[in-house]
Amino acid sequence: MRALRKAFGDDVVKIGFGLVGAGFVALLVLLLLGLLGMKVWKLFAPYGREAIRALVGLVGVLGFVLFNALLLVWAERKVAGHMQRRIGPKEVGPYGLLQSIADSLKLLGKEILTPRFVDRPLYYLAPIIVFIPVLVAFVVIPFDARLQVRDINVGIVLILAFSSLNVIAILLAGWSSVNKYSLIGGIRSVSQNIAYEIPLLLSLLPVILLAGSLSMKEIVEAQSKAWFVFYQPIAFIIYFICAVAETNRTPFDLPEAESELVAGFHTEYSGMRFAMFFLAEFTNVFIVSAIATTFFLGGYKGPVLPGIIWFFIKSYVLVFIIMWFRWTFPRVRFDQLLNFSWKFLIPLALANLIVTGWCLKL
Fold it and tell me: Are residues 4 and 144 in the same domain?
C-alpha cells in the first residue's frame, strides 16, 4: 500500500484501480503459466513416471549418503576408542550418537579459506568432482529385490567408470593447491589407484563369467544356491585388499599420510570443502563393501529376514573389517604398496581368471 500511495498519491480510486490491474495481470500470468505447464506435461507425460522415479531416487540417495556418513564417522571413532582402550564419543547424545551431527554443524560454521596462490577453478572443482561417483554408484546397487533406483545391464561397468573420477579429483586437489605436500599426495593417489584398479577389475571378472551378466541384480540372483565367495575365495581376498587401497584407507593411506605429508592432497582445504572429501571417503568405504556383498556374499539373499536387512548386515560387517584394519596395521612404504600390486596381486588375479575360464570351458 505504501508503494501504491507513493506512486498514485492519496487518491483511493487510483489505488483501487492499481490493485485491480495488478490482480488482473497476476491472474493472466498464472493462466499463461498453467496453459504452458499443461502443454509441457502433455509433451513429457510418457517420461513423467521415469522423471519422478529418478527424482525420488536422487533424494533418497542423498539422504542415505548423509545419514550413512554420519553413522560411519561415529562408528569409526567408537571402533578406534575400543581398540585403543579408550571410550570414544559419549557426551553428545546417548553413547555419543549425536557427536557426528555436532561435528557437521561445526564444519558448516567454519570459515572457508582459500590460499592466495591456488589455481582457483581446479581448486574449487575438486571437492565437487570427488562427490559425483558416490551418487552414481548408488543408482545401480540393489539393496533389495525391489529396491534399486535403476537396474541396467552394465551396472558394474558404470560404477568402475565413474570411480576413476575420484582419482582425478584428488589429483586436481593436490595440483591446484600449489603445495608440495598436496602435490605428492595427489601423485601418490594416481599411482596407487592405477596399480590397484587392475587387480580389482581382474578379481571381479571371474564372478561376471560365473553369473554371465554385468547387471548387479542378475549377479545377486545367480547366487540363489551358493555365494560366489565359495567358488572364488581368492578373487574375494584380492578384491577386498584392492578395495581398501582404492579408498585410501590404512595400511594404504599414502595419499594423506599425516606423518609424511601433513594431510596430503587436502592440506589446503577447510570447512565444508574439507568435509566433502571425507564424506566421499566414508561413502566409498560403504560402496566397496556393498559391491563385495553383491558380487561375493549373495547380496540381499538370506533366510527369514527381509533382503534389505541382510544386505546392510553383510555390508556393514565388511565396513567394520576395513575399520579394524585401520586401527591394527601400520602404514606400508610406497614402494611396498606398488610392488605388492604389480608383482603379486596382478599375477595372482590373472592366474585365478585363467583357471576360472578353463574350468567354465570344461
Answer: no
Amino acid at 313: I
| DSSP characters over 250-319 | TTS-GGG-HHHHTTGGGTT--HHHHHHHHHHHHHHHHHHHHHHHHHHS-TT--SSS-HHHHHHHHHHHHH
Q: Which residue has the cell 560402496?
A: 287
Give the Å distances, CA to CA, from 6 to 9, 11, 19, 256.
6, 11, 14, 63
Could you give the CA distance from residue 174 to residue 176 in angstroms, rounded to a whole number? 6
Q: What are the grid coordinates assigned to 4, written together?
A: 501504491
- This prediction's pTM: 0.81
Domain span at residue 25?
Answer: 1-34
Instruction: Give 90-122 pLDDT, tens digit per residue.
Output: 888 787 888 888 888 887 777 777 788 888 888
Look at the block and give the residue holding cell 582425478. Answer: 168
Q: Is residue 251 part of a domain?
A: yes
Q: Are residues 185 and 328 in the same domain?
A: yes
